[in-house]
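We modelled the chain as a single entity of 621 amino acids. Its sequence is:
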Amino acid sequence: MTDKPSDAKPSDDTPSDAQNRLIGRTIDNGRYEIVRLIGEGGMGRVYEARQVSMDRRVALKILRAQLTTDEQLLARFQQEALSISRLRHPNTITIFDYGKTEGDLLFMSMELLGGQSLFSILRQEGRLGLSRALRIMDQVAGAVAEAHQLGIVHRDLKPENIQIDHVGNDPDFAKVLDFGIAKILGGDGRTSEGKALTLAGSIFGTPHYMSPEQVHGHKVDHRTDIYSLGIILYEMLAGQPPFDGNTPMAVMMAQASKPLPNMREHVPEAEVNDAVLQLIADCCVKDRAKRLRTADELINRLRQIQMDGLGVPSGNWSAARPTESYSHGAPFENRSRVETAPVPPPASVRHDSGQITPDHAGHIATVPPDTMYRQTDPNIRPLAARKAPWWMVGVAAIAAAVVAIVLVAVPDDDTDTAGDEVVGKTVIQAQNIRYKIDSAPQGATVFVDGVHSGQTPLELDRPRGKSVDLSVQLDGFQDKAHLLNGQGAPIQTVRLPLERVEPPPAEVLPPVDVPPPTAWLRITSDPDGAEVKRGDDVLGKTPFTWEPELEDGEITLEFSRDGYHDATHQLTLNERGDAAVEVGKKLRKKRRYVPRRNDKPPTGGVKVKPRDTKTGPYEKL
């Protein structure tokens, strides 16, 4: 890379410190001109830049220069770029380019967003109304659902990573940011060389939004994001997260152990209903096996709540909103209105749970526009009855054309049309296929396109025409894979018999000779050098260590040394301690006769009676 100055002069507010010397310069052979610093994080800095070739403003993320020698961090940066480049959801930030410059600076070029973070909005407004919070969460969950389908777990969802901007007619268009610590489940979080990108037991995330499994350092999956989304929805409605503390560790311990506070008691003024509270509770179950299973389920329940509360059918929520944005509390006359809207599908297509999934949003009819808004809002009044304007005729014609497209020919007698709606002699085919998945034996773990989706038996809704890779796993049985081709009857039963895996024969080890237990003794004498015997066996000379086999009864050791009286010592050998047992013996020195210096030997043949040894003079040697 050549960091040569660009033709444009730096602005007056350009930071003067050496770390911001890139501002006002170009990188990557002049492709990007750095304009200003937007922010920075642990891995690098984010700049506003101009892509010279397209004259486009972009956000340019550059890894810290001092970290470019760290192979693990380099792999994480490349993983961030790869992760986001695979995502195409409109509510996920778009990546344009990533690579390495000649100067070994890693960069990533992304769309430059406006607006402000959800974090800033909550700090300014305190809490959001129910309708607004549900619309934002619907968009965020959609972005997360696509990531999960590609095997990507965000692991750090929080209001700071959700950007809200006014886009088109939507004043609250959400973008999910920062997949920088996302984990690609398909690769088990490893580089192409198999090196782990994170150390075992490492904890990533933000304490106020971390799942219990993150707190404990356990392996995470897509349900970790479900937990975080539940916490974020709670905060949007309550104006504060459910768990707080004086230290990050205190917050983490609360996430792992404390029950979710009752929002009605915690924040009585929050706008909530029973369905929303139950949804948040289902997302925030401590045991992830009992948690809401997928982001798709979260979306379905969000839309069901919106439909029940606002009189609007589930499905594409943005299609049912007014075509023009408006400010809360503005006169109704200033709000753009719609004259036609989808109506709820008939009861025959409702699920057993009472939810209506987006699959059946193909029924079209006209309804009075006043059903589009809450009647509890004093600023909203219904439209007066009036004749249909000319443009409604065109809308009706388009609707008729759409219905004609989805009509299919009368099926043969052997065609399974269960779940399809029959109108006269035509069949309106359901847009989704419901798979009833089971295994023999039951209880197998089900993965759909590599994402954990529950255990058998379970039901799975997938769009018609879209194939799905299904696999089930159960301990003691071979894994089973199956392709759902997205064709056929709208309700299908998939039963997968599993083959038992015989465990390998246990390895037979040869018998091992176990030595008999022994005692542990340290034999000493005063002075050293005494020979120690047991019976006729010489054990050694003191000092030495002796480890005989354990036995019952007493044994006798004999100590002998020249110039000292023999000694004995009795002991038992019935146990072994943690340290050597000291067996010491003090030896008594022998005495011998020494004549006095003035003693004279006897003369002549006269015999001299020897001295009495008991009273005669002695001298110690």
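As a brief sanity check on the tokenised model: The first strand starts at residue 26 and ends at 27. The chain has eleven helices and 28 strands.
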